[in-house]
Amino acid sequence: MTLSESKQRNEWFTMTTYTGIAALLPVWIIVITSIPWIRRNHYNFFYYNHVLFGLVIFIAASIHASTDFYLLLPGLFLWFVDWACRIFAGEAGGLLSQKSATLENAGNEWLRITLPPLSTKDGSYNSGITMEEKGRSNCQPLLYYYVQIPSISKFQNHAFTAAIPSSIQSGPVFLLQPTTGKPQKRLSKEWTWKLASLVSDPLSIKNIDIRVEGPYGVGDNGFETASHIVCIVGGTGITGACSLARWWLEKRPENTSFTLIWTVRHREAATITEWTDLEQSAGSMPNFTTITHVSSESGRVDANEYLKKALVLGHNPVASSSNRAWVYSSGPAGLLDSVERACVEAQMSIRIAKNGGTTNSWAVQNLSWYMAKWEV
What we know:
Blueprint: H1 3-9, H2 11-22, H3 24-33, H4 36-41, H5 43-64, H6 66-88, E1 99-107, E2 110-114, H7 128-133, E3 144-148, E4 158-162, E5 173-176, H8 184-187, H9 191-198, E6 205-216, E7 228-234, H10 238-251, E8 257-264, H11 273-284, E9 288-294, H12 295-298, H13 303-311, E10 324-330, H14 333-354, E11 366-372
Parallel strand pairs: 7-8, 7-10, 8-9, 10-11
Antiparallel strand pairs: 1-2, 1-6, 2-5, 3-4, 3-6
Helix pairs in contact: 1-2, 2-5, 3-5, 5-6, 13-14
């Protein structure tokens, strides 16, 4: 129906035409805010634009053509289900439930948020002992959450926050560092800087109210069947690697190995408790290796070199014709790119050797990887 035809009928038909045209504006706003630079550097702006303008588009489309409501109804139903899960469900009770957590300045620019032991629906606490009695592990690795702290902002949240899984003593633990690489005027507005200002003194502790959405898992569980797990992480990427290491130490699968390389700028950053505990475990646990790479002393990490040390025959005690490796990396974008390139090169070398092109010096027959880019 043309605009002139709608005017000849009545005002309602004219309004439906204008509404359809007006609906294009929020569509373009959503498209523009989806540009990678905007969504990565201004995530909350991108997030709330999608939530609000998504509803505007739904209403405008339903007014524009009544049949659109029925076509969009299944999507609207799933949208409500999704938000119901975010608000009311989850390990910590969803966004509606406010928990009291412990915020700690762990020293050397590290911040640690520790949630209390989380209770289950029957009121009992979600402890490792309870899960072991049921024959199931409580240590699910690579979980991430959306964290909101009302004292910082009621609307701003910290998305894709990797966590060390719940234990008998505590709920999930989040390790964070204040953002760097921006002008000070912009840094003071960053969520992590606002968080750090709450515990400005080293080793100071403060109780804070927190809302947690999640957990969410990643779409790759290759670590469960891998004979060789290799983690090459930097900075706060150690959180996901710690969760994997704890899972491996708890499961201790037969004929498997675990190698964890953590690159930090200064050696002092590697004195955090979670890392020193893993180093102690590595001292007494066969096939479990931890390596601290200090970039200020040894330069940038060479992912190719570390992969070969972990996966080449002679260096690794676990070798079999059916072995497969799984590589995990998390941290700065430059590190992820270098590790991914190293994985591609290693995979090609393994395939060539497997097909008889060269002497096979690899301890594995296949290699896959997961880069924790935490992108939407």
